[in-house]
Amino acid sequence: MARMFLVRSFAVLAGLVLILQTLDLLSESGRILADPNNGDAEVWRYVSLRTPQIIATFLPFSVLLGTVITLVTLNQNSEVIAMKASGLSAHQVLAPLIVAGLFVAGISFAFNERIVARATATLDQWKKVDYGDMPIDRGNRANVWVRSGENLIEVDQIRNEQSNTQLYGITVYERGAGSLKSILMAERGQRVGDSWRITDSRRFDVASGTMSEVGTTAIAPGVTPDQFTLSSVNPDGLSFFELRDAIDQLRAVGRPTKALEGSLWHKLSGPLSAVLMPLLGAVAAFGVARSGKLFIRAVIGMALGFLYFMADNFAIAMGNLGAYPPFLAAWAPFLLFLMIGEALLLKTEE
């Protein structure tokens, strides 16, 4: 059963990838070849970067279809009836598929970590330059906010000059007891020791409404250059551990991380959907084939699987908007449909 399930799942995946990659290439090849320096090599490079994304996206769908095909075949040949007549329960009949689903989930997680994340990051950068030569990211940024204790620091521009980070247009909002005390302004600053030295600075005192010259002073002790140069994070282009580290860095500088935390949890719950598919498709395995309801059972199993994917995408979208907590956005659909699948199995077969 496990072998049948794996063979059919990966066969469906191969067919989907072949068809979808062909359609995707037809729509993108014009943009790739629009650059006069691009040719066949760049087209095949695009295929090598896009194919892992398609595999990662449609592997759960393939597992669902592989589950339904396997169980319908067993039911049609009365093999499920034979197994139940020998004393096996519905859960014991599904056990090989669930174990195989755990194997697929492990492969999916490793594939996403080692291949998909790197391919996604590279392809996103390539698309931003319209499939031309990709520029070197030297860490230059604009309009960056960083937190240092209670103070908020706004920098108009950050440049990496000879491996030394330079800050331009610095505004430090000095706060205490939850209220704004003063505003420190400077045109330029650089890292010296564990802090940042700014020159020709001046301070505006909120209480008195007066401006005073400060000159050279140190700000932001403990704030590293990475906290200034850290750009926006694409969770799909980072592995689980890289995304976790990026979230820690963003949280340290006071930036919002709720949407990224939901994506972090989803890197675990997403591959585990392969374990859920045999349970949702189990409705196609049971019942007498000659009753004429086998097709209806298969449709119901597929419908449950597609409803799960819709609920999963909806929950992630709500998590990105901040309406759902990150853990709930990633795990609620999985746990909900796990209970639905168990309830249907217990009610109809156990």
TrEMBL record:
The gene is lptG. Keywords: Cell membrane, Membrane, Transmembrane, Transmembrane helix. InterPro entries: LptG, LptG/LptF_permease. NCBIfam families: LptG_lptG. It is a multi-pass membrane protein. It holds the Pfam family LptF_LptG. GO terms for biological process: lipopolysaccharide transport; transmembrane transport. It comes from the Bacteria. Its main location: membrane. The chain crosses the membrane at residues 53-72, 93-111, 268-287, 294-311, 323-346. This is LPS export ABC transporter permease LptG. It is found in: Cell membrane. GO terms for cellular component: ATP-binding cassette (ABC) transporter complex.
